[in-house]
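Researcher: Let's do a round of design. I'm pasting the structure tokens now; please hold your answer until I've finished.
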């Protein structure tokens, strides 16, 4: 196993903290990628990893992603991420949560945590009884989904403007993969604007019901990336843009809320070479984190909305630089984010 500095995802992390609390069985990693713009902020994931190296790599990858996302959203927050390693011997109980909260607290505010996969709202409330460094608690803005959905809607509108030169979404055909919190919210915004919708979800009933309500159509989940549409909006899983799936797309733009859409990275180049506009995921889906971090920004509702409204400006800047330099939108976004965090 290579030393941590030699892992490809290390990317000059400022610190990687590893915790092991014998009495409670807590094993956790807190990765702090950058505090250049402010405290490193990012959620805690409770997940069953194949081995401990996979957990460290996940923390590093997600932590860097948060640096880029927070910077591009104009937040005074750096990027970090925590992962807690689950296994049958390590059950998430109160004692373990308390031990994790002490671990977060021991960093003295350099890392601010929030909810992520495997952690409930009740878990976050429990952490907040031990450490002040928890964001997005109930009463501090609530569910990030609707905020993310609004930002993604504005991003889809921006993609239609850039790709087709239209200010109106009327008749623009959007295929949405996953109609949960983000995709469902997006579908409602788009329906209000007269867009033509094709929806898919592994929970087929969910897609069928929403399509019936909004006047769209639904297709089986494994067909949504193959249909002829104007815009494909991934709002379910990450890593769905593979070489094969990108080559099969019959759309002019990809703009959606899912995290880490490009499976390996080079798919961004195939999209550009095929003339398909791409909205970098961490730029278009920042509405939720903008709201989650409202208390460290001292932002009220008007300010939150103003920041979400700025998502299209960021996208237009990225696409215009991509058009003039030939770099892919993903490359341009990464370069912009790196400059913002002083790298
Ligand atoms: P969600 O669980 O509410 O909805 C996801 C939906 O996708 C579900 O209805 C699920 O059945 C469906 N789904 C899962 N696999 C699918 C597949 N293969 N094909 C079609 N549908 C599938 O989750 P969400 O909060 O809406 O998040 C969606 C995506 O957006 C995730 O990638 C998430 O990481 C990302 N994201 C969410 C937020 C937020 O604020 N909720 C913020 C940033 C990014």
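Researcher: That's everything. Go ahead.
Model: Designed sequence:
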């Amino acid at each position: 196993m290579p030393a941590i500095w030699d892992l490809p995802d290390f990317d000059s992390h400022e610190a990687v903290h590893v915790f092991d609390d014998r009495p409670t069985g807590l094993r956790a990693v807190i990765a702090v990628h950058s505090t250049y713009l402010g405290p490193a902020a990012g959620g805690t994931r409770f997940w069953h990893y194949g081995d401990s190296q996979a957990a460290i790599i996940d923390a590093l990858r997600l932590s860097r992603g948060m640096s880029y996302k927070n910077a591009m959203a104009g937040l005074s927050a750096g990027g970090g991420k925590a992962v807690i390693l689950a296994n049958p011997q390590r059950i998430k109980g109160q004692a373990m949560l308390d031990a994790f909260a002490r671990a977060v607290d021991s960093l003295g505010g350099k890392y601010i945590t929030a909810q992520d996969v495997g952690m409930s709202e009740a878990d976050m409330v429990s952490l907040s009884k031990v450490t002040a460094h928890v964001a997005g608690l109930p009463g501090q803005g609530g569910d990030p989904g609707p905020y993310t959905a609004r930002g993604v809607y504005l991003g889809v509108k921006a993609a239609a403007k850039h790709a087709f030169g239209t200010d109106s979404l009327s008749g623009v055909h959007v295929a949405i993969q996953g109609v949960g919190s983000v995709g469902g919210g997006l579908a409602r915004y788009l329906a209000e604007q007269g867009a033509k919708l094709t929806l898919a979800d592994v929970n087929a009933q969910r897609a069928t019901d929403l399509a019936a309500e909004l006047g769209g159509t639904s297709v089986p989940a494994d067909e949504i990336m193959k249909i002829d549409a104007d815009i494909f909006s991934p709002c379910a899983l990450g890593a769905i843009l593979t070489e094969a799936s990108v080559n099969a797309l019959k759309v002019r733009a990809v703009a959606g809320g899912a995290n880490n859409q490009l499976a390996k990275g080079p798919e961004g180049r195939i999209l550009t070479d095929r003339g398909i506009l791409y909205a970098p995921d961490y730029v278009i889906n920042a509405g939720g984190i903008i709201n989650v971090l409202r208390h460290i920004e001292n932002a009220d509702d008007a300010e939150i909305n103003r920041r979400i409204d700025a998502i299209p400006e960021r996208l237009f800047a990225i696409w215009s630089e991509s058009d003039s330099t030939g770099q892919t939108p993903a490359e341009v976004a990464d370069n912009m984010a790196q400059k913002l965090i002083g790298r």
